[in-house]
């Protein structure tokens, strides 16, 4: 019998054995701690020879499980994750909400009732994607959090070329997770995780498929508001267009296209305009005696480190130089 925890394998690399042995209770406990409370019953006359391994754990998780005996597994209603079963060997019978599914790759989500029967040869890879991870990916596509959970079609039908490509990608993730690259590049791991989630949303039909197809390339009002609010609140900081996209919960491409379509500008040009506006107000306040400071101090306060470029940008926006505003305040302000 072997029972291990995360990091137990030498060097912390490769699959981690969570349980291996013949004790029904210990295998049941190990699986329940990782997935959800469930019932497990040995239905044949064999003694189990179970193996439960963790292959990857991050924003998504990948496991391998085999019982080595005929078993019935009844998790009941799934909690807050999507369970994707990828059969390696053997077979069985799967019911979701009382409906029989093929034991080929399938996906079951939160709130759906799952029960399974596996034969002694069955070995499955199990991909676990938290509901919040799917919700975040949908929010990026839709511009705001969806009003309900994503419900996927249960069968991953490889007659659909896109689905077949996605399942092949999921299989390749197994090799990648054990590779030296995954251990030295957390960013590569994150990209692969995102690729699996985004690919699933595009390949497998779900309750928001039509909305994703219609809105995926558009920046909706909620996302635009988040972007402009972020620019206003962080204008004094050294933020990038990537920071703005993250705050808006959209891709860089969607952010740029949305600003161009709705505001006829770019995100960075919009940010610069907000900074110039703040600088303009500060200079008027100094001119009116409500504050103190110099042109250089105001420019630096709002992120303009090159005074020559600041003066040129300011003149284009307000038809006067910063020093002229400092002398005469808002009088003569002819901003277009």
Question: What this model shows, in words?
Answer:
The chain contains 13 helices and 11 strands. By secondary structure, the chain is an alpha+beta fold. The protein folds into 3 domains: 200 residues, Jelly Rolls (Sandwich), CATH 2.60.120.10; 45 residues; 59 residues, Arc Repressor Mutant, subunit A, CATH 1.10.10.60. Strand 3 and strand 4 form a beta hairpin. The chain is elongated. About 2% of the residues have low confidence. InterPro entries: AraC-bd_2, AraC_XylS_family_regulators, Homeodomain-like_sf, HTH_AraC. This is AraC family transcriptional regulator.
What is the strand and helix layout of this fold?
Layout: E1 16-21, H1 24-34, E2 39-42, E3 50-57, E4 61-66, E5 71-77, E6 81-89, E7 92-96, E8 99-101, E9 106-108, E10 113-118, E11 123-130, H2 131-142, H3 161-177, H4 180-184, H5 186-203, H6 209-215, H7 221-233, H8 241-248, H9 252-263, H10 267-287, H11 295-301, H12 307-318, H13 322-328
Antiparallel strand pairs: 1-3, 2-5, 3-4, 4-11, 5-10, 6-9, 6-11, 7-8, 7-10
